[in-house]
Amino acid sequence: MSEAANDIGFAERLRVAVRADDPLRRNVLCKSVTEAGHVIVDEHDAADIVLADGGRPPEEVRNVVGLGIADDRLRGALPRDADARQIDAAIRAVAAGLVVRAPPSRDNGFGAMREADGHALLTPRELEVLAALAEGMTNKAIARRLDISLHTVKFHVESLFRKLSARTRTEAVAKAAERRRSDVIML
Q: CA–CA separation, 125 vs 145, rounded Å?
């Protein structure tokens, strides 16, 4: 590791106590922690950070990174399926005095596209489906008009939702209209 990285604390070896009910899971977590350059300690009191997996949170929550533990008192909270890189980052952040939280899951609707894709072009067929949505047509009526299957209409509607970061048909039409206005260049 470079000297500059060492100066800002990235190479610091932390003492980590790993708590997991499942011995196999504990071994996997210990391996991940040691591969990240940290030292595993058995004593909770000797640890800089406690990595706790699932179940109930430990009594001491001061310097704990919890995996799959829903407790706002913990300094670090990640989903149980966090990867080794995320766990290492959380351990280092909590040791530096920061609070770590995983982003909330987005279970309903379609996720927004990355910023770079924000102006992704709509295909000619998506534009036809969008025009039909603006007229208030049902999927079945759109399928008949465009001579495509109902499944294909649903595919195009979902694609429109994703590209426009919309959750409803009305929102998709409104966002498309707004996007059209913002794409016009005034001279």
A: 12
Where do you find CATH 3.40.50.2300 in the chain? 10-101
Alpha-carbon torsion 60, 22, 87, 79, what sign?
negative
pTM: 0.51
Dump the DSSP string for 70-92.
Answer: --TTSSEEE-TT--HHHHHHHHH
Residue 134 near residue 160 (C-beta atoms within 8 A): no
Among the listed residues 93, 100, 96, 88, the one whose alpha carbon sits nearest the alpha carbon of residue 33:
88
Nearest 5°: the CA angle 130, 155, 127 is 20
Q: In the chain, which segments carry CATH 1.10.10.10? A: 115-180
**Dihedral through CA 55, CA 60, CA 61, CA 62, nearest 10?**
-160
Give domain 10-101's CATH architecture: 3-Layer(aba) Sandwich (3.40)
- Torsion sign (Cα): 163, 164, 166, 169: negative
- pLDDT one-digit tens code per residue, 141-167: 999 999 999 999 999 999 999 988 899
Determine contact, residues 47/17, Cβ cutoff 8 Å: yes
Class of CATH domain 115-180? mainly alpha
Q: Tell me which residue of 164, 169, 165 sits closest to 154, measured CA to CA.
A: 169
Q: What is the pLDDT of residues 31-64, one digit of tens each?
A: 999 999 999 998 767 888 888 887 666 676 668 8
